[in-house]
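hiii, so i know i said id send this last week but things got crazy w the move. better late than never?? heres the sequnce for the chain we talked about at the cafe, plus the structure i predicted for it. fair warning i was half asleep when i ran it
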Amino acid sequence: MRRMCLYFLILTVFGSSLAPFGLAQESSDHKAPAMASTVPTSGFRAEFLEGIAYYEQRYTRLAEAMPAEKYTWRPAEGVRSVGEVFTHIIGANYGVARALGTPPPNGLDFKAIIALSNDKPKAVQALKDSFAHVRNATLALIDGDADKPQKMFGQQSTLRGSFTMIIGHFGEHLGQSIAYARVNGVMPPWTEEAQQQQQQKPADKPKP
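okay and structure toks below
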């Protein structure tokens, strides 16, 4: 999934309901009984779960690496701040899950999610919780429904196609967050680790 082309540029906005996401829940026949949900090892759900895990790791590690005082930084007036990008993903995860047939937790307030943008510890935890929620929504689906109609981000597609849109959305805003981090002097943790590993490799011996 991580090598898929990042397209379907999607910009969603927050609100007190899910309508601003442009997400519409299709018929509930996408959902399998909760007790029957198991982690798939193959098929389109397994591929999507791999993508979710990849982006969850990237987002949460970057959110943890950003200094708390930088969460209010924004490149220009009217553009999302560091923290607002993270809360945008949090809200989108719950909206996506609802579109897939799994409603948000009882009492979830989307306006309250926006308010977390200046609170690093709470934003990081909410980010983790939202990824867990969209993962559970994926597990509740049925592989046989891959080609069933599904509306996502205001566009009509299939269930399989909607996963491509969601991955594209993840990629778009991860790139935005990486740019924010680098402008503020923060190297993505995975890049730093890769550089350290490269430095630790023994130098090639000169050929005789």
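btw The two ends are 44 Å apart (CA to CA). thought thatd interest u
miss u guys!!
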